[in-house]
Amino acid sequence: MRHATEHADVLTTELDMVLRGGPFHAALRAAIAARGLPLQRVQHHLSRHGVKVGVTSLSYWQQGARRPQRPESLRAVRALEEILQLPDESLIRLLADSHEHTVSGRPGVRSYRSLIEASDVLDRLRAGLGWSADGGLHTLGHHEYVRIGARRELAGREAQHIVRAHHDGVDRFLAVHHGDPGCRPQDISVRALENCRTGRVRWDQDAGLLVAELLFGTRLRCGDTFLFRYGIEDGTAGTSREHLHRFCSPGGQYALQVRFDTAALPARCHRFTQPSAAAPRSGRQELPVTGPHHCVHVVEPRIRPGIVGIAWDWE
């Protein structure tokens, strides 16, 4: 009996360790072992959750020979978290992290952890400014222009917003800038370009995050529309490899353009989407860098909650 207890303790300790650091297949294997379930029983429990996955696929997943990618497979991973009595998002987070490492194999690409940590920091910075989640504004249009400099760095960006107030008294917007790894938020500047002026600015060094109030100079009534434009001057980090925007609520059109300096043209570019920070990237589409302007873009006719971005590779 003592031997069995000690063995269970070892399995639990191993599971705790791999749930924190991964990889996904090791965490899945450890979770199945800790619960003492044969794969046939795991498959049976999945079917009771309305998810069909073969024993062979489960075996491949826990060996690392294959990884869940299809929507049905991702549903299975979420069901496995419940079946194996794991914390919510624990397996799906590791799956997202392993996907990003596999796709990029390089630093500078934001992981699940960095996005979640930045989200937590953003909530804290917002609260410090007395800011609500949506600020009383609905996005009708959001156009973003990103500049990559001669050192392959994120030199800066401009954003134009068209918004509609959904309650009376709205007089400001909170601009958010998430710099590349290694950036210095205290050295990043915010420029009010049209129909606004800069208010309070806050940043967090560890998260590479900066927020700035943009004051309209007028109070909108419910239903009023407003157009404003601002710029961010960065250039404080190293090599940039992607730019993404995370949307928490639905809205109108979003357009993202990335322009590259002629001295630093990428080898390849592609667009991508993510339903959430915990989900693997999908919707990949190659974007050729052509013409004299050396830029690529994506247009989303209707904003949906999730992430839209462009990534690129250097030679």
UniProtKB/TrEMBL annotation:
Domain of life the protein comes from? Bacteria
Protein name (database record): Uncharacterized protein
